[in-house]
Amino acid sequence: MAFKNIQHFIATLEKEGELIRIKEFVSPELEIAEVTDRISKSEKGGKALLFQNTGTDFPVLMNAMGSYKRMCITLGVNNLDESGKQMEDIFKQLSSPKESFTDKLKVLPMLGNIASWMPKVIKGRGECQQVINMNPDLSKIPVLKCWVHDGGPFITLPVVNTKDPITGIRNVGMYRMQVFTEDMTGMHWHLHKNSARHYHGYKKLNQRMPVSVVLGGDPVYTYSATAPLPDNVDEYMLAGFLRKEKVKLVKCVTNDLEVPYDADFVIEGYVDPNEELICEGPFGDHTGYYSLQDNYPRFHVTCITHRKDAVYPATIVGIPPQEDAYIGKATERIFLTPIRMAMLPEIVDMDMPAEGVFHNIVIVKIKKEYPGHANKVMNALWGAGQMMFNKVLVVMDGDVDIHNYAEVFKNIIKNSNPNEDIYFSNGPVDVLDHSSKRFALGSKLGIDATTKTNADSFNSDNITITPFINKDKIKEMFPGVKDIRDFNSINLPLVIITITKDRKNHAFKLANELVGEGLLTNFAFVLFMDHNIPLFDMKDVIWMAANNIDPERDCFYINDKDGDKQYGIFIDGTRKTKKYDGFTRDWPNIVVVDDKTIESIDKKWDKLGLGAFIPSPSLKYKALLFKGGAVAEEE
User: In whole angstroms, what is the distance from residue 260 CA to residue 223 CA?
Assistant: First the structure.
């Protein structure tokens, strides 16, 4: 369904019991984010929040897409598989053989529907231009500072519009924007993104780059800006398909870009590619860690237009789960269809766990047809669009439910030999990946957990292992070992060991010692984590481990005292330092809020109308902090 504007969306959420209005003053500096963090981590993502008293003329809408139900409302579906199914039906109708004139006529209504979803530029002013400010002042908008070590306030849901300087093809993306002055922000587009390519095109031409930033309107615009579309596919066409109504665009006031008619705010301006870059960040990011300072282009604001009843939409990212987990789930379900139809028809299903923060962990189920089929899928996905950023890829087959993670892990143990069915590759990684040896370049790990046949190199039915660990002796001999958790009681050959690192290559040396002394044998996976990580919450362990490894560097095998390769793979999921690991890049801290903000929200909670008291999630995670601010200091 198409929402007329964000007010229509808010009214719909309220009617569905999915929105809470907060009338008490809550500050855009840290407090709104802290309230939202508590709600977004509650059961099923909590409710959407409309902060009506922000110290400005504009309310702030938070967590609007932060549940499965609200994501479905955003897209106008009953479940997130519907849009993918609709896309699949279109593919099939257009690509099926047309043997008769009647068959060809049947396609015409579909072609008419597709044409009706194409964006259209209309004449005159839009609702987004009811108020025009030619003396722009970003301080009048309630831009949030979300985390204590953020470099400043950041616009977190900007729909950034640019055009290729040669072809004129539009790109609509989402890139955070740090506010520096009343009329200047940073523009954090990563080197792999389309708008960054446009930027370099303007630089070659020695021309200013027009940019217009949209906030609000139909929430499907926001979703479409995050979608992993192929190059040169218009995001507003995707928005038209999802809302089943074309996006009406109007020309901006101070540049020639077009923006949605019904947007709440439009921030117009330009980037000068010849201008000196500005140091942007840190920023508490969706990885749950700070992305650290770096140099990015300056965006100069020439005009701000907005609706008279404008609402400022924003989001908070950080330790999962947050609102972005549900946005990612929509992408997983919608874009499974084009991956399957255009590239890998053998794919049956796909899952991106929230703990994998989009790219770190992906689970794929295929219809296996031959030996090495899983490897073929791994290589294809690692070369496809934003899947090139994936770090850990698990491939399965059969009737396993890949959305049930306990079942997934049992299937990995059943169907894969860690000494034979784990594969490594190298390539681009997300620029936010802090553990890779080099910026934006690292390694990848693939696990072939498909059912093996006699034609495969390994048949899991022939393997019988009996895990053994002597916890008391390990703790007695190695004081640096703080905690040990095994899963022998449920027949999973996995052990997690937390350590206080005090020597070079600590995890590798300890693994050799444990095997050499016969204190640990026959575990398929042995994971080392830092001493301050509690082992009772496996979701947090997986989230941190996936963030902290460069697979080729941190996954290794150990030979036993006879010189034979010990069964199982060891994984160093600890923080890497220069002192103990020769790691020369800065290592970020996780994102938590300060005690003062926690205390402030605790005191005003009863006035917020949010129901039973919810303690700050940051209290749970403060133990995971290292010394320092956004950058963790060497200990």
Answer: 14
CATH, range 323-461: 3.40.1670.10
Q: Is the pLDDT of residue 86 over 50?
A: yes
Query: What pLDDT score was predicted for residue 338?
Result: 86
Q: Which tokens belong to 515?
A: 């095997």
Return the pLDDT at 89. Answer: 73
What ranges do the domains of the chain cover? 6-76+117-313, 323-461, 468-581
Give catalytic status of residue 262 as yes or no.
Answer: no
pLDDT digits (tens, 9 = 90+) for 496-515: 999 999 999 999 999 999 99
- Measure the CA–CA gap between 465 and 458, rounded to whole angstroms: 15
Q: What radius of gyration, in Å, describes the C-alpha atoms of the chain?
A: 26
Strands 60-62 and 312-313 turn out to be: parallel
Stretch 202-228: mean pLDDT: 97
Q: Is the peptide bond before 321 cis (omega within 30 degrees of 0)?
A: yes
Under a CB-based contact definition with an 8 Å cutoff, are residues 226 and 331 in contact?
Answer: yes
In three-state form (DSSP H/G/I as H, E/B as E, the rest C), the secondary structure along 308-333 is CCCCEECCCCCCCCCHHHHHHHHHHH
How far apart CA 372 and CA 378 sit, in angstroms, is 10
- Rounded to 10°, the helix 323-342/68-75 angle is 60
Report the C-alpha gap between 114 and 94 in whole angstroms: 11
CATH of domain 468-581: 3.40.1670.10
DSSP result, 432-478: T-SSSSBTTEEEEEEEE-SPP-TTSS--GGG-----EE-HHHHHHH-
Q: Model confidence at 282, in pLDDT bands (50, 70, 90)?
A: very high
Backbone dihedral region of 628: left (phi > 0), alpha (psi from -120 to 50 degrees) or beta?
left
Confidence bin at 194 (pLDDT 50/70/90): confident
Q: Give the pLDDT of residue 564.
A: 82
| Contact in structure between 132 and 305 (CB atoms under 8 Å) | yes
Is the predicted pLDDT of residue 136 greater than 90, yes or no?
A: yes
Length of the chain: 635
Q: Tell me, what DSSP letter sits at residue 1?
A: -
CA-wise closest residue to 380 among 344, 350, 427, 417: 344
What whole-number percentage of the chain has pLDDT above 70?
95
Do the beta carbons of residue 271 and residue 130 sit within 8 Å?
Answer: no
Same topology, domains 6-76+117-313 and 468-581? Answer is no
CB 217 within 8 A of CB 95: no
Give domain 6-76+117-313's CATH number out of 2.30.110.10, 3.30.460.10, 1.25.40.10, 3.40.1190.10.
2.30.110.10
Catalytic residue among 150, 183, 218, 285: 285
Give residues with Cβ within 8 angstroms of 29, minimum separation 6: 144, 145, 153
Question: With b meaning 16 or more CB within 10 Å and e meaning fewer, what string describes 26-56?
Answer: bbbbbbbbbbbbbbbbbeebbbbbbbeebee
Residue 94 has pLDDT above 80, yes or no: no
Tokens (6 digits) for 576: 């890497």
Report the Cα 25 to chain-centroid distance in Å.
30
158-177 tens-digit pLDDT:
999 999 999 999 999 999 99
